[in-house]
Amino acid sequence: MDCIADTGFIVSRWSKTPVRKQWAIRLWERAALPMLTSGANLQEAGWLLENHEIVLRMVKDGDLRPVLDFEREARALHYLAETYAPRMDIADAAIVRLSELFPAHQVLTVDKADFQIYRRNRTHVIRCVFPPD
């Protein structure tokens, strides 16, 4: 399974909540590695985990691959952030843009409220995998 890893999914891998952690580990084992993500999501995950070393290790070990070029994608990211303002932050815009660039990939995210609203290429539902309720 080809995947795009959102911040919440990355953080869930190290969650203290058993259901959330089991969900993330189960998907991690099924996903084709590396999972795609962005530098913004890695930064946000490191901050939320209060441990950037774990996040950097996942990149070094080949679990995660930051692929979004913010300079090249600035116009598209700005459009997304403006379209979904004030709801969308930079990390969410990065994941939506990755879903546009890699439409066959599924987005792994805990952010059901936002990702049920966001659309790739303006009208297409983003294929997401959410944790169990």
CATH superfamily: 5'-nuclease
Mean pLDDT: 96
Fraction in beta strands: 5-15%
User: What is the distance, rounded to the nearest whole angstrom, between the alpha carbons of the first and last residues?
Assistant: 22 Å
H-E order: EHHEHHEHHEHEEE
What is the overall shape? globular
This entry's quaternary arrangement is single chain
* Contiguous helical run count: 7
| Uncertain parts | none
Q: Based on DSSP secondary structure assignment, what is the total number of beta strands?
A: 7
CATH-derived architecture: 3-Layer(aba) Sandwich
- C-alpha Rg (nearest Å): 14 Å
In short, what is this structure?
The chain has 7 helices and 7 strands. With 133 residues, it is α/β, with parallel strands linked by helices.
Q: Could you please describe the fold and organization of this structure?
A:
The chain is of the alpha/beta class and 133 residues long. It is 49% helix and 14% strand. The chain has one domain: 3-Layer(aba) Sandwich (Rossmann fold). It has helices at residues 7-12, 18-30, 39-49, 52-60, 74-83, 90-101, 112-115; strands at residues 3-5, 35-37, 64-66, 106-108, 119-120, 124-125, 128-129. Strand 5 and strand 6 (124-125) form a beta hairpin. Helix 3 crosses helix 6 (90-101). The protein is globular and about 35 Å long. The model has no long low-confidence stretch (mean pLDDT 96).
